[in-house]
Every structure is written in structure tokens, then in C-alpha cells.
Amino acid sequence: MEIPATVVSPGCKECCERCVGSLPWASLIATILLYMGVALFCGCGHEALSGTVTILQNYFEVIRAPGDVLDVFTIIDILKYIIYGLAAGFFVFGVLLLVEGFFTTGAIRDLYGEFKITACGRCLTAFLMVLAYLFFLVWLGVTAFTSLPVFMYYNVWSMCKNATSVEGANLCLDLRQFGAVTISEERKVCMGSEKFLNMCDSNELDLTFHLFVCALAGAGAAVIAMVRTNIL
């Protein structure tokens, strides 16, 4: 009499190994890095722009232009809306990146069939590669643009740190040099004046400068994540 073979159900260890092996770890790490970089850029960038508004109003006495005139405050508001759009767009992109990783991982193909998963995965991978390159080019521009306020704030921050060593020098911060106001409008703060000393002693300048630095670091992290995505 033939003894039927017993069916051995997989144990907890085998199930865990199969579950862990089916995860797209490379895409998951790239998505987490992308989310962290975009969140750091958007959060710090938004607060840095708000700090810039405070500095312009309190120490340079710049006021909002009446009506729909395109002044520096309107440009800052537009940049804030751009940050909101970038945050929403990259959230969707991160979700698509994870879906692409799940569809193209080898364990998922073995589990659900080679043809369907491979065909869907190839189409999704091709679409995401094009999208990733476009986002990569856009984000390179964003990173380059973010370095500009970091450079400007670094100059101002250096002037405040070296104010005692260059005491008596006739150095001024003129907003017309940075394109923040029109040529006919004179808004400047000179070293040794009360406004300059108050600005250097305040927390707004130091905090805004470091927030822009963090935003630049977040943009760099997002660029690294998209490079990682394109390599994969």
C-alpha cells in the first residue's frame, strides 16, 4: 500500500524570507531618499521665504506694492505655490516609483507569471524613465536656483560676523544689487547703522540662512535619489 506524501506547509521563516525577497529594496531606498529630500527642500524653503519677507519688512522697510504689481513679495508668493506643486508632484512620482519597483522585481514575476508582469513592468519602467529624466533636469535647475539665495545670505552673514574687524568701512547692503527692488527705489542698510546691528543680532537672519542651506541639501538629496532611479 502506497503511503501518500505529506504536504509540508512553509514555516514562518520561509514566509518571511519570501516576503522580504519580494520587496523592491532599491526602489524603496530611492523613494525614501526622494521623499526626505523633497520634504526637506519644501519645508525649509517655505520657512526661509517667510523669513525673507520678515527681513525685508523689518530692516529694509520694503512694503507691498498696491494692486497687481509684480514686486518681490509677489514673486515670493509665487515661489511658495511652486513649492506646493513640487511637493504634490513628487509625492505622486514616489508612489509610481514604488509601483514600478513592485512590478519589476524578480520575486513578483515568479509568483504571478512572467508574461503579464514583465509586459506591464516594461511599459511602466519606460514611462518612469522618461519622467525621471524630465524631473531630474527640472530639479537640477531648482538646485541651481536654490544656491543663489544661499550665496546672497552667506555674504550678508559674513558681513555680520566680520562687522567688528571692518569697523569704520562704508559698506552697505543695497537691495537693488540683488534685483529685489527697482533701480529707482533705494533700499539699503549700511554697516554701523542701528538697523544693520539689529538685523545681525536678530534670529531671523541666522535662521533664514541655515534654512536655505537645509533646502539646498534637500534638493541635492532629491537629485541623488533621481540619479539612483535612472541607474536602476
UniProtKB/TrEMBL annotation:
Ranges annotated as spanning the membrane: 81-103, 124-148, 207-227
GO CC annotation: axonal growth cone; dendritic spine; filopodium; neuronal cell body; plasma membrane
Highest taxon of the lineage: Eukaryota
Annotated membrane topology: Multi-pass membrane protein
Alphabetized UniProt keyword annotations: Membrane, Transmembrane, Transmembrane helix
Gene Ontology biological-process entries: neuron projection development
Cellular compartment(s): Cell projection, Dendritic spine; Membrane
PROSITE patterns reported in the protein's UniProt record: MYELIN_PLP_1
InterPro entries on file: Myelin_PLP, Myelin_PLP_CS
Predominant place of localization: other
PANTHER family the UniProt entry points to: MYELIN PROTEOLIPID (PTHR11683), NEURONAL MEMBRANE GLYCOPROTEIN M6-A (PTHR11683:SF4)
Assembly information from the UniProt record: Interacts with OPRM1. Interacts with palmitoyltransferase ZDHHC17/HIP14; the interaction leads to palmitoylation of GPM6A.
Similarity annotation: Belongs to the myelin proteolipid protein family.
Descriptive protein name: Neuronal membrane glycoprotein M6-a
